Amino acid sequence: MNILVINAGSSSLKYQLYNMKTEDVLAKGRVERIGMDSSILTHEVDHQPEVREVSEILDHTTAIKKVLDMLTHKKFGVLRNIQDIQAVGHRVVHGGETFSRSVLVDQNVKLEIRKLFDLAPLHNPAHMMGIAAVEANLPDVPQAVVFDTAFHQTMPPSSFMYAIPTVLYRKHKIRRYGFHGTSHDYVSKSAAEFLERPLEELKLITCHIGNGASCAAILNGKSFDTSMGMTPLEGLMMGTRSGDLDPAVVPFTINKEELTLNEVNSMLNKHSGLLAISGISSDMREIVESMNEGNEKAKLAFEMYAYRIRKYIGAYIAAMDGVDAIIFTAGVGENSDALRKEVCKGLTFFGVRLEEQRNAVRSSQPRRITTDDSVVSVLVVPTNEELLIARDTYQLVLERPADEAESP
Questions:
Q1: Do residues 379 and 327 touch, judged by C-beta distance below 8 A?
Q2: Catalytic residue among 148, 185, 337, 392
Q3: Is there a domain that residue 65 lies in?
Q4: For labelling, which of 21, 257, 283, 307 has a CA lying 20 to 30 Å from the CA of 158?
Q5: Using CA atoms, how far apart are residues 163 and 235, in angstroms rounded to an integer?
Q6: Which residues are annotated as a binding site?
Q7: Structurally, how many domains does the chain consist of?
Q8: Are residue 355 and residue 273 in the same domain, yes or no?
Q9: Is 148 a catalytic site residue?
Q10: Are residues 325 and 265 in the same domain?
Q11: What is the CATH number of the domain that holds 315?
């Protein structure tokens, strides 16, 4: 079975085509600047030169058609025709309390996703455009949606409730939802396989550290707590997001700087974090390079960033009454040995013993970066959210009742 995985943004679209028999990526790419006359489609197939096409792509329906044309192109494609695509899986950021697992798309699912637009106004509407665009181009192909929030729906109320009037939860569903769920789910399962232990018996802390970053406490295979909240702004310090701060900062800043709510929201999401403290970049590679050259602001940004990760790890160890393994993943987590070293040097009390040579190695495979006698294992596990989406989609299609399979 060939499954196309789509991640639709408001003006962009990423795709990967999987052969589920082998779980190989047959092709991948992205469409950028949707809505403009100079949109860019980039298409990649292993062992072939990257293909780049500039054309007018005014909407997501056209973007999907361009992707399908490229996948079936006589020279650059990997499929004979579009009928070789048996299912499509979509990443959807917010599933609210409605969705605790991945589901096949039907009219009711689309209605529920629209109801959640207020919780993810920058993401869910774009995901719906992606679903509609696939429907227009592949009307008979089943589609599935995989939610970033679904994995965290196992959190107990003591983890997800905020200490504010409960009427706000009842009326508006204001609570912690958490994000990066597909990544936390994927790497926790991969870590259990690597450790050769049942996931249901493990206490894990997964650290998804990229431009957006979050930690999760995973107890017996289920999310027990996570650092992001109702939105991705809460929690760790990130590339351009502030992470945790005193809520009173918002009205105080509005009053003192005469800013609007939208301006403060933009400041906290797009102009804070590493970028604000370092004054040079939101990219950890540039922060480390500048720090090593003696830049004190970069050094402060790096130390704050690592310190907050370490604080969450310590809190989650207490919350779960121990930990078997700590996992680093995503762009920074997988590639910055300097950051992993800085985080781990403050965890020796818990029995973490970093092995610097192992930590310095780069690999596309899961690996241990602690010593053999370390009480707690620290792992680097490359994430693969697209593969998890493909796997969930594949399983949902296989489980469809016969009458639905005949009439998608």
A1: yes
A2: 148
A3: yes
A4: 307
A5: 16
A6: 7, 14, 91, 208-212, 283-285, 331-335, 385
A7: 2
A8: yes
A9: yes
A10: yes
A11: 3.30.420.40
Host H or E run for residue 402: helix 402-406
pTM of the prediction?
Answer: 0.93
Per DSSP bridges, beta strands 203-209 and 325-329 are parallel
Residues 6+ positions from 333 with CB-CB distance below 8 Å? 207, 208, 209, 210, 339, 340, 380
Binding site for Mg(2+), residues? 7, 385
Query: In this structure, is residue 219 part of a structural domain?
Result: yes
Same domain, 227 and 83: no
| Domain carrying residue 312 | 198-385
Binding residues for ATP: 14, 208-212, 283-285, 331-335
Please check whether residues 120 and 227 belong to one and the same domain. no
Residue with tokens 């550290």, as numbered in its chain: 209
Return the sign of the alpha-carbon dihedral for residues 341, 342, 344, 347.
Answer: positive
